[in-house]
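Input record (one chain):
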Amino acid sequence: MGGGFCWWAREVYGASNPRWVRFRDWLHAAAPRWLHAMYAAHGEAFAGWIHDRPAVKAALRVLMDRALTEAEVPCPASE
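The corresponding structure, as predicted from the sequence alone:
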């Protein structure tokens, strides 16, 4: 998949949706350490696994959106 430390977010939101950048920023700045560590260790493989599982991506999107809302991560101007 490549692209650095944003595998789930780009798979869940899509590369053209700026929310993946917001999630990546939240992950680096405010996410629990255990989640950051798990993402770093398994994120790329997990993104590959969810690629053809739309129900899993939809469930993750709900959780990721909730994390961004609760953390009040600002929206990029292009969103």
